[in-house]
Every structure is written in C-alpha cells, then in structure tokens.
Amino acid sequence: MSNTYTDQTKRVMQDDIEKIYSKITTLETEIGNLRQGYMVVSKRYAEAIGSLKSLTASALEAAKRAAIAAEKALLAAKSSATAAKLAASESVIDATEAAADAAAASAEAAIEAAAAASAAASAAAAAVAHQAEESSIRASAEAAEATKRAADAAAEAVRMSNLASESARDARRNTTNIQ
C-alpha cells in the first residue's frame, strides 16, 4: 500500500510540477510580449517627441517670420501714408489714391501676417500640451510674443492705411472744391 501511495504522490507532485512549469512558460511568454509592446510604445513615443520638437521649432520660426512680415508691412503702410499726404499736398490725386491703396494692401498683409503668427503660436501651444519640455514652453512663449508684435504692427498698419485713405479723400475734396 505504501508503494501505491508513494507512486500516487509522485504522480501528483509530477503533475503539479508540470503545471508550475506550464505557468512559468506562460508568464515568460506574457513578459516577453509586454517587453516587446513596451519597446514599440517607447519607440513611437520617441518618434512623437521628435515630431513635436520639430513642430514646435517650425511654429516658432513661422511666428517670428510672420511678426517680421507684419512689421515690414507696417513700414510699407507708413511710407504709403506719408506718400499719400505728400501727394495730397501737391494735388496729385491719382498718386494719393494709389498710395492709399498701397497702404490698405500693406494693412491687409499685416493682418494676414498676424493671423499666421497666431496660427503658429497655436501650433506651438498644442506642441507644449503634448510635450511639457522647457524648450517647447519657451518656444510657445516666444511665438506668443511674436503674435503680439504682429498684431500690434497690423493694428498700426490699419491706422496708417486709414490715414492714407483720409489723405486721399481730403485731396479729392480739395480738388473738387477748387474746381
């Protein structure tokens, strides 16, 4: 009887050992799968971070360029307004109206540049939302500052355009009153 009991115990123990080995094999497979999944996620995360860094840099560059464009449009609008005033004083109505048109076009360019700067700042802010790195936060702040510069330049360009248009209207009225 003890021989049978020992054989049964050995078989039960052998079955338990096989179950343990089977569980260990299953766990090893699951750990391998998890490791592989982690490596894929880690690689994708690194790629996403790289893309976001690139997006942030591009957005910052676009915002800075838009701000510069708006400031240059402001200079053009100021020059056009000055030309309109000078032309009005010389009673050169066509030149005055052309200068006023140029000032209006410059103001529109400044507004578009401000909108581009705003879009770039928005892209930089979106990048920061996904990537809370100091460089992205700095870039977003710089893009926001560039947007402010562009908006200020656009507002000033519109004011200059309005002055140029007013000079053209005054010149037209003065010419009409003289005749």
Describe the structure.
This protein has about 180 residues and is an all-alpha fold. It has one domain (about 1-179). It is built from 3 helices and no strands. The chain has helices at about 1-90, 95-130, 135-179. α1 runs antiparallel to α2 (about 95-130) and α2 packs antiparallel against α3 (about 135-179). The longest helix is centred in the first third of the chain and has 88 residues, at about 1-90. The model has no long low-confidence stretch (mean pLDDT about 75).
List the helices and strands and how they pair.
Elements: H1 2-89, H2 93-130, H3 134-178
Helix pairs in contact: 1-2, 1-3, 2-3
Keywords:
0% strand; mainly alpha; 179 residues
Number of helices: 3
Low-confidence stretches: none
The biggest beta sheet reads: none
The geometry reads as rod-shaped
Helix and strand run: HHH
In short:
This protein is mainly alpha-helical and 179 residues long.
